[in-house]
Amino acid sequence: MEADSSDQITSPLLPTSTRSDDEVDVENSPIKQVALTVSTSDDPTLPVLTFRMWFLGTLSCILLSFLNQFFWYRTEPLSITAISAQIAVVPLGQLMAAKITDRVFLRGTRWEFTLNPGPFNVKEHVLITIFANSGAGTVYAIHIVTAVKVFYQKHISFSVSLIVVITTQVLGFGWAGIYRRYLVEPAAMWWPANLVQVSLFRALHEKDEREKGGVSRTQFFVIAFICSFAYYIFPGYLFQMLTSISWICWLFPQSVLVQQLGSGLHGLGIAAVGLDWSSISSYLGSPLASPWFATANVAVGFFIIMYVVTPISYWCNIYDAKVFPIFSEDLFTGSGQIYNISSIIDSSFHFDNDAYQRQGHLHLSTFFVMTYGVGFAALSATVVHVILFHGREIWEQSKSSFNEKEKDIHTKLMSKYRQVPEWWFWCILVGNVTLTIFACEYYNEQLQLPWWGVILACVIAIFFTLPIGIITAITNQTPGLNIITEYIIGYIYPGYPVANMCFKVYGYISMTQAITFLQDFKLGHYMKIPPRTMFMAQVVGTLIAAIVYLSTAWWLMETIPDICDQSSDSVWTCPGDHVFYDASVVWGLIGPRKMFGDQGLYGAVNWFFLGGAIAPMLVWAAAKAFPGQDWIRLVNMPILIGACGQMPPATAVNYTSWIILGFLSGFVVFRYRPEVWQRYNYVLSGALDAGLAFMGVLLYLCLGLENIGIEWWGNNLDGCPYASCPSAPGVVVQGCPVMS
């Protein structure tokens, strides 16, 4: 579709436009999805740093930070996204614009200001959402504090915890500043997830004319929001089996084999389907925001790993696979029982090798081993793919800034604003690294990580930020660094679990934060937010969120008895922190050498590194050999290989339902009804997220706090009780039939 076709969005984002020449009037982004979604107009006179923005932004950040951390420790954690705040602040902003005095204070002085500069505008709204983004999700470094205080029962002070939390959250600004020119300004780096929020902003602020016989985007959003809100009471409370309808299990209720094949939560998920938006979008993001080529890569990778590699490995009994479940993230003994981790930790919370030799090697399910393998392969594939397919662009951008002819319309419109000086980012980077080294050296008894570990973690983060940023900006999928960081420090510095956790957080989360900051920068780029104002909102929001998250977690750990005790009837069982703690034991105490090295059972998995490096070379060679076949260049090996990187904890039904919706949206509707896709696709995604979030909070506050539930077969999540059973003869596991 050409940029000036009838499918282009022509309604202005703002009341007035600064476009002054005919060339700009017809110019648009070369990326079709961006051209159909993002406005090419701007009004630089709109007030941005207003009292409304500060008040609502700070309030949103504090509330989301508190609620997300509060819910995080519960058995069924609930994540409240920024879209909830994005919706809720609109009437509040409009109310403040209508009721607060417009009196000008200190008139005639350099400090002149007003609390009400006029109508609530979209740029204020964007900055409030940036604040809210800081409070959405979780602060990963809180895992360290929880593991040390609750699981290891060791001392860590609030001040040291605050240093760790703040430095891990803010360190990513350094990498983001270094790579802005590669990941924000180029039109090819289009960050698909941002288009959902752009569409939502436009639906909430633009005067959209309703087509005859149709509905406006605002009306469509309201309808979809109400439907999503009302519907979630079924999968969220009344009929929880909608999360995973594994109907094949119903046909063979006594068959271990069939339930292994059909279970959407504990098996391969053949024919399983999920009718719950939270399970569809929880791990891979919204399928409506994923470009079709990325969805197709994920689908192919998922099919190969889940339906070819895993069944062959399991039924060929590789690594004694049949002794364990076909799909599980648990840690096992050689006889198929759950491994007693506490038995291999001595009184000083170091690795007890004698106890380990008595209990025997740690075993993993074959699928879990394969996920580690594809994690290794995805990392090497990411580096090689970016070098082969984007190396020349990176080199050209390193030599010089963009020429005027290479800038798209959005970069041209943003050029009128004062940019953030690069030295600001360098100051944050140097200050954070210095503070981190000081904390690790001065409080080494609490953190265990030596100074060189901080430097090495930063080297890993800065090396991978660019290639992973490129993958994310193009495909909306982000390969993780958690495996490789655990692997490296586990080999170099085994026996120190807190050091392993700190290294993982500084090496992995600083990169993740950099990706988040760059994505926010691109959102500001699309919405024409002054860069310095955007930078300020990100920094302040991140600091507020870090303090609130830690304070909330500290309060809960100090006031709730037996928090994170899974053997009690308490709802405060901390499932995510248990996984983090187990990983620190496996990679920090036992160490990768005893699992994937010469002393371990799974040394062959290291060959995945080589396979991942070779795979993009084959695609690159094919693209060169057949230049007329454009589809070859759409084969993205980092995404294809790493498709199952979210599994576990993600399950088969999360993927199958996500792929189906991604196909319907990104291929069918986008190709055959582009005008419908342009008008409603991203608005629908935002409405589904918002309706789910509001009903989820309401259900928890009204029913979850009092543990009021309904006992009936429709609330049996999967209906496949034998899916987690082993299939080897003679293995005795509680609740499972003994195979003969």
UniProtKB/TrEMBL annotation:
Primary location group: membrane
Domain of life: Eukaryota
GO BP: peptide transport; protein transport
Biased composition range(s): Polar residues: 1-18
Record's subcellular location: Membrane
Transmembrane segments: 53-72, 126-152, 158-179, 220-253, 265-285, 292-315, 367-389, 423-444, 450-474, 535-557, 604-623, 652-670, 682-703
Mode of membrane association: Multi-pass membrane protein
Keywords, sorted A to Z: Membrane, Peptide transport, Protein transport, Transmembrane, Transmembrane helix, Transport
Pfam families: OPT
Region (Disordered): 1-25
One GO CC annotation: membrane
Cross-referenced InterPro entries: Oligpept_transpt, OPT
NCBIfam families per the UniProt record, alphabetical: ISP4_OPT, OPT_sfam
Entry's family note: Belongs to the oligopeptide OPT transporter (TC 2.A.67.1) family.
PANTHER family, per database record: ISP4 LIKE PROTEIN
Protein name: OPT superfamily
Gene name for this UniProt entry: OPT7
